[in-house]
Amino acid sequence: MPIVKYPRATEPLWHEWDRKAQKCGLRHTVYSVNGDQYTGEWLGNLKHGKGIQVWKRNGAIYSGDWKFGKRDGYGSYSILDPVTKEYKKVYTGWWKNDKKCGYGVTFYPSAERYEGEWSGGLRSGWGRMYYWDGSMYEGQWLEDRPGGQGMLRLPNENRYEGGWKDGKKHGPGKFFYLDKGQLFEGIWAADIPKCGILIDFGRVEAPAPTQYPIPKIELADPDGVLAEAQAMFDDSQN
Hints:
Layout: H1 13-21, E1 25-31, E2 37-43, E3 46-54, E4 61-67, E5 70-80, E6 87-96, E7 99-107, E8 113-119, E9 122-130, E10 136-142, E11 145-153, E12 159-165, E13 168-177, E14 182-189, E15 192-200, H2 222-237
Antiparallel strand pairs: 1-2, 2-3, 3-4, 4-5, 5-6, 6-7, 7-8, 8-9, 9-10, 10-11, 11-12, 12-13, 13-14, 14-15
């Protein structure tokens, strides 16, 4: 009886090539068509785990955690200085879904620095901002601007403590004029003091006190007058 031999079914070569192209686990540097490069861990053909990404367009580099192709976890982002050709750190901290989220430190131009909480890539929560002129804000942030309760200290050590809204002094607050030895306590609206009381405060120790102390208030009921003014302001805001 004759024996019939059937040709063995062979798997198309592209199946094998496709398996080899699927990236999973730790891999050597992988280059993109646009020149970007990534060295690190993969899962299901996506960056996942620890890895380093370098962008060719601006020379920026990210080193840290990845999750399903996005920066997620702890990592640092740096850019290349075109003059010194050295990397300058821009952000170090936590990420979520490719955006700053959680606690982190950002370094801005002109030696400015923010230390605090982030949400969706914006300063939100508690944080401390150091400005180029030597002033410092510490307190609550909302959508990348001071919002809530916070303290602003100026280079001459004068400071404001109180409410903020949209990056401006707003609501009840105190302004300490330590250079003149005075204290203003009252209500602000959009950075403008609307009503309050100005008194001497540490005038003896002040480096540049006013020529004369603030005279005594002769009103029969100064607290009542202030309360009425504050009530009028509150009504106008509603």
